[in-house]
Amino acid sequence: MALIELFKPTNLKNSHTLITGPDAYLNDYVAKDFIRQEKFKNLEQTIIDCSEDGIEELIANLTESSLFAQQKLIVVKNPFFLTARIADKYKKQVNKLQLILDHLQEIENILVIIASYEKIDKRKKISKILFDQVDVVETKYRPYEISGLIKGISKSEGYTITNQALQLLIQRSDQVLDTALNNYVKLKSISEDQKIRESLIEQNVDRSLSENIFEILTVAFKGDYAQASARLDEHLREGNNAIQILGIFESQIEFLMVVKTLQTRRWTREQIIKELKANPYRIKLAMQNVVTLEKLKYLLQKCIALDFGYKNGQYRGNEYLKMFILSL
Q: pLDDT, tens digit, for every residue of 157-178?
């Protein structure tokens, strides 16, 4: 199964394809998988980056005509002509390209466009023409869908990853798809039996700073101040400063507060996930935390005050940060 099928493309009848979405790494990954299909195996491949090579280069490749010319697969990156604003100097080129795209089905070469933009201006004539001529794959996703995407990608590529291993991978990737996908690619290359287990992740994927800070909070909430203090010292030795760590503390406590607030309103886990658009595993951990909402509010106030003290020069050194941890 091609990875584009994970994103519900408009249809798969055409070979001409537009892959669009804000995540460049994901788009490139999906495009490479698409291009590896058997039907494209013997085609000459040309890559055109419109931001570097210009629109004229794309026009030249699309209109190339020769008795000896071989059918090509043209991969187009950074098609800025689909965005809302383009410089006046490109208008003639865009108009010329627009006429060519209007007859795209008559062109023998195969066009694969990768548009890594938050939005394409669908009101523009050239965009409307293109959307009528190609299959459109929108790689947009919600934060809570990251686990499902990684699992879908691994299954499509013939790899097995357990639910526990998947949760650990997402956790160590700080709930960020780019990072999770990059880590997954690394794990693929060292997996001996196409199975990705927790032990493989434990040994080869480092904890993120955010995850480590969350662990400090977790053990401190349980009263294990020795371990919390030791972990904090480790981060400080690695060069992380008090303000940076406090910023993550604030973010984590705020997240716990929001989840606890929704819990008091009798929201289900599924409702909270949908509302916060957060990773399900992160929501699960937050809901299991036994710290009261009142204490979290108090700790957030202390954290903000401490952060302000460091920033205005009232506090120096790491002792005040350590005292905050001991107060949890």
A: 999 999 999 989 998 898 889 9
